[in-house]
Amino acid sequence: MIINLESLKWKEFRIGDIFIVSGTKTTPPESLISNGNIPRITCAGTNNALDTFYKNESTEKGGVLTVDSATEGFIYYQGYDFIATDHVEIIRLKEINLCQKD
């Protein structure tokens, strides 16, 4: 199905109407297990906020936006399950129909 943007009704919305915003579970540095394949997401403004990869079990599901809530507010897409530092928030799309015609 092809959607024509001119045929849609545009209106204002609140972020909470479309997205779920939540915090992450912080994985403390002293519990990190090196040389794994689980990404650790930080508040960094570079490299998609990736620190490196660890053997820890993921605490967060991928397919979300992560937001740095400590400094500049960097936002990155995380496609894979991950662990996080503190001050990393998640924005997840609610399961709603965003393309409703008049």
Explained architecture:
This protein has one helix at residues 15-18; strands at 19-23, 34-41, 50-54, 64-68, 75-78, 83-84, 88-93. The radius of gyration is 17 Å and the shape is elongated. The chain has a four-stranded antiparallel sheet. It has a single domain (12-93), classed as Alpha-Beta Complex (Adenine-n6-DNA-methyltransferase TaqI, Chain A, domain 2). Strand 4 (64-68) and strand 5 (75-78) form a beta hairpin. The longest helix has 4 residues, at 15-18. The two termini are 17 Å apart. The model has no long low-confidence stretch (mean pLDDT 90). It is mainly beta.
Summarize the structure.
With 102 residues, the chain is mainly beta.
- CATH class call: Alpha Beta
**Run of helices and strands:** HEEEEEEE
The secondary structure category is mainly beta
Can you tell me the CATH superfamily?
A: DNA methylase specificity domains
Q: End-to-end distance, in Å?
A: 17 Å
CATH topology: Adenine-n6-DNA-methyltransferase TaqI, Chain A, domain 2
